[in-house]
């Protein structure tokens, strides 16, 4: 009898990438100047967990596609900067580019445009009956006319707009450590999209405004769960376990877009939470299991990347996400080729920590005991009892009659 390999896919999922992510972007002194998508793909391949059929190459989004959301002036400014090899002052001032936050780098237009098309392409594959994962995406802060928070083009918005063209009701869930402000703002006036973001309270974290429990938007289609520093696994499980069923019940989506930034993971240098890789994957698995289905049972789910500034944590975590999406049971031990890849990354920020060596040999973390603080319980209680859509449960948005 032949035992099937544990790395055979059991679900219909596609992984979207491009060779240009191998080039150095953002520059040496930027938190995103680290290997992310390329390291993730290499680690997945070291596990033997990606077939040629499952891998999709993304092209660049065209200006016309980017202009579904972005202004023509901004898109052409990005193109001109790439052609000129620098950012003019008038562009810097108007579009918030060419500064430390959103620096110039070779491939200034092409790289974010490719990451952006990946989310449109992912939406199209979802429409065709697959799950899709675009780890280069998730740039949730970008605004129509400006870069914000390391994000040039807002690929989650464009992916959602592609799904909206088919008339689908889209639930956007954002588990990045930062508030998904750009996506929320984009759909303020579309009651067929609900955005739900769990994040570091903006009283102490970027973007330093918005994202409060009371920020529900004029149509009550925004759900925001601001959380205190130091969130542990038990706390996050408690909050998510209460909030998620209420959101699903209230909105009843036809498709889900998940922004899976990894900066909630404990060792992340910019995040202030202490979430483990295991708990992150538990949340992703719950989303997969609860997603609406195609007729063959495949979840209607697009996953995009997002923040994550610890390359080793990020690659381990997103390899695990791909394992869940494609229905593979990846071994906990990182295979020798994978360990060599991770050790080759120039990363020593937490070299003194006792978990450091584990980062190279296991894709999971040592679990830390935690308790659920009263403040955390109270916050989720407050959201569930105050949000108009969640209180009424299911009656909002279902069949909105447009006046006039
Ligand atoms: Zn983030």
Description:
Belongs to the histone deacetylase family. InterPro entries: AcuC, HDAC_I/II, HDACs, His_deacetylse_dom, His_deacetylse_dom_sf, Ureohydrolase_dom_sf. This protein is of the alpha/beta class. The protein has one domain (13-58, 110-345, 352-392): Arginase, Chain A. It is built from 14 helices and eight strands. The chain has helices at residues 37-46, 63-66, 72-84, 89-95, 110-127, 155-164, 181-186, 233-251, 277-290, 311-325, 336-343, 358-361, 374-386, 388-392; strands spanning 13-17, 55-57, 131-134, 170-174, 193-200, 222-227, 255-259, 301-304. An eight-stranded parallel sheet has the order 2-1-3-8-7-4-5-6, sandwiched between helices. α5 (110-127) runs parallel beside α6 and α8 (233-251) runs parallel beside α13 (374-386). It is globular and about 55 Å long. The N and C termini lie far apart (68 Å). Mean pLDDT is 94; it is low at 1-5 and 394-404. It binds zinc ion (ZN). Residues 176-178, 261, 263, 307 line the site of zinc ion. Residues 176-178, 261, 263, 307 line the site of zinc ion (ZN).
Offer a concise description of the structure:
It comes from Thioalkalivibrio sulfidiphilus (strain HL-EbGR7). Pfam families: Hist_deacetyl. This protein is an alpha/beta fold.
């Amino acid at each position: 009898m032949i035992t099937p390999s544990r790395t055979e896919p059991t679900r219909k999922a596609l992984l979207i990438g491009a060779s240009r992510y191998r080039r150095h972007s953002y520059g040496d002194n930027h938190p995103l100047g680290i290997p992310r998508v390329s390291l993730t793909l290499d680690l997945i391949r070291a596990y033997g967990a990606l077939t040629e059929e499952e891998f999709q190459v993304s092209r660049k989004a065209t200006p016309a596609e980017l202009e579904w959301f972005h202004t023509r002036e901004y898109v052409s400014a990005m193109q001109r900067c790439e052609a000129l090899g620098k950012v003019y002052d008038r562009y810097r001032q108007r579009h918030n580019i060419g500064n430390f936050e959103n620096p110039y780098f070779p491939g200034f237009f092409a790289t974010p445009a490719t990451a952006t098309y990946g989310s449109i392409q992912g939406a199209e594959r979802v429409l065709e009956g697959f799950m899709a994962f675009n780890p280069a995406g998730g740039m949730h802060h970008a605004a129509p006319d400006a870069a914000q928070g390391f994000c040039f083009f807002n690929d989650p918005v464009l992916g959602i707009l592609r799904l909206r063209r088919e008339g689908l009701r889209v639930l956007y869930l954002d588990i990045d450590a930062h508030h998904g402000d750009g996506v929320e703002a984009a759909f303020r006036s579309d009651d067929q999209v609900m955005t739900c973001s769990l994040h570091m309270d903006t009283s102490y974290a970027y973007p330093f405004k918005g994202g409060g429990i009371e920020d529900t938007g004029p149509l009550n289609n925004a759900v925001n769960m601001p959380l205190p520093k130091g969130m542990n696994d038990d706390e996050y499980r408690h909050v998510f376990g209460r909030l998620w069923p209420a959101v699903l019940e209230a909105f009843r989506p036809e498709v889900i877009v998940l922004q899976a930034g990894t900066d909630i993971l404990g060792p992340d240098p910019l995040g202030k939470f202490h979430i483990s890789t295991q708990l992150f994957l538990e949340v992703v698995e719950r989303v997969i299991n609860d997603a609406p289905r195609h007729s063959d049972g495949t979840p209607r789910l697009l996953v995009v990347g997002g923040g994550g500034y610890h390359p080793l944590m990020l690659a381990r975590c997103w390899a695990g996400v791909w394992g869940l999406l494609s229905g593979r049971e990846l071994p906990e031990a990182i295979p020798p080729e994978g360990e060599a890849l991770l050790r080759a990354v120039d990363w020593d920020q937490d070299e003194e920590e006792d978990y450091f060596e584990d980062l190279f040999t296991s894709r999971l973390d040592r679990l830390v005991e935690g308790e659920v603080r009263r403040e955390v319980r109270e916050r989720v209680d407050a959201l569930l009892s105050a949000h108009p859509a969640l209180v009424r449960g299911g009656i909002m948005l279902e069949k909105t009659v447009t006046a006039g």
